[in-house]
Amino acid sequence: MEHKTYKVIIASKNPVKINAALDGLQRMFPEAEFMPESVNVPSGVADQPMTEQETLHGALNRVANAREVHPEAELWIGIEGGVEVIGGELATFAWVVVQDKEQLGKARSGTFFLPQQVRELVEQGVELGVANDRIFSHSNSKQKGGAIGILTHNVVDRRELYEQAVVLALVPLRNKELYLNPQP
């Protein structure tokens, strides 16, 4: 990306996701400026995606829906948090999808396992953010540090976890010559 201003649509009103998206963009493209706009668009999946595939599908849908609402933008970003049972434990992670007018990039965040009490609530149909608030006596943790912030005592927070995945999703956009026209 060159020295210019890009209109970016972030498919969320959650300040954690907005800040992660903007911080990741600035890290990968320090020469560019970004005019962000956040929008609420449907993910097309459950409020609490329960598998990796459903979570990725939600992030892809958010980007597609944001692009439909704002086709004039130059970048669209969707971030979807999800959970999946792995080896009898409940893991949590997020998928990030970034699209410009030419291509799509995607990446998954780091993964960590949740305490059994949280798993039990999620399996009863409680959304992860609500379950965290109940178990850890917090309020609105999903718009703050999230489970990772609570469990690491803010050594890593939700914004930082998502920001790294945003950076990784931007790799194809930062290296267009390698991803758009691969040489045999």
UniProtKB/TrEMBL annotation:
Annotated residues for binding of substrate: 72-73
Binding-site residues for Mg(2+), renumbered to this chain: 72
Cofactor note: Binds 1 divalent metal cation per subunit; can use either Mg(2+) or Mn(2+).
UniProt-listed Enzyme Commission number(s): 3.6.1.73
UniProt entry keywords in alphabetical sequence: Hydrolase, Magnesium, Manganese, Metal-binding, Nucleotide metabolism, Nucleotide-binding
Domain Non-canonical purine NTP phosphatase/PRRC1: 11-173
InterPro entries for this protein: ITPase-like_fam, Non_canon_purine_NTPase, NTPase/PRRC1, YjjX_NTPase
Catalyzed reactions: ITP + H2O = IDP + phosphate + H(+); XTP + H2O = XDP + phosphate + H(+)
Gene3D superfamilies noted in UniProt: 3.90.950.10
GO biological-process terms attached to the record: nucleotide metabolic process; thiamine metabolic process
Signal sequence bounds: none
Pfam hit, one: NTPase_I-T
GO MF annotation, one: metal ion binding
Cofactor: Mg(2+); Mn(2+)
Quaternary assembly: Homodimer.
PANTHER family associated with the record: NON-CANONICAL PURINE NTP PHOSPHATASE_PRRC1 DOMAIN-CONTAINING PROTEIN, PTHR34699
Stated family: Belongs to the YjjX NTPase family.
HAMAP family in UniProt: Non_canon_purine_NTPase_YjjX
Function: Phosphatase that hydrolyzes non-canonical purine nucleotides such as XTP and ITP to their respective diphosphate derivatives. Probably excludes non-canonical purines from DNA/RNA precursor pool, thus preventing their incorporation into DNA/RNA and avoiding chromosomal lesions.
This protein's name: Probable inosine/xanthosine triphosphatase
